[in-house]
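Researcher: Predict the fold of ATP-dependent Clp protease adapter protein ClpS.
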Amino acid sequence: MNAVVSIPRLAGNDDDTTLKPRLKVRPKLERPKLYKVMLVNDDFTPREFVVMVLKAEFSMSEDQASRVMITAHQKGVCVVAVFTRDVAETKATRATDAGKAMGFPLMFTTEPEE
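Model: Structure tokens for ATP-dependent Clp protease adapter protein ClpS follow.
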């Protein structure tokens, strides 16, 4: 059984030009760039306080937070976590501010992940 399909013509166009379906073009989405949150070692902030901040701000277990704190102490700096830029900057600022509120020079920084 053959069905006849009528294809609409453009108004005022008398030739045999037919309409072609439009292809949907999807823009290629890029993944957001990731940023590392870094804990910078200092000689004044108590270790217990650093662990407490890591647990509170980065949802780490006691063991994870202790390992990050020790690594920063031994190497001078340690990657805490990797997030999108806004999240990384917010977490670094909040963690640094927690130290400032208690009078400690605790510092977290961010840098692009390579």
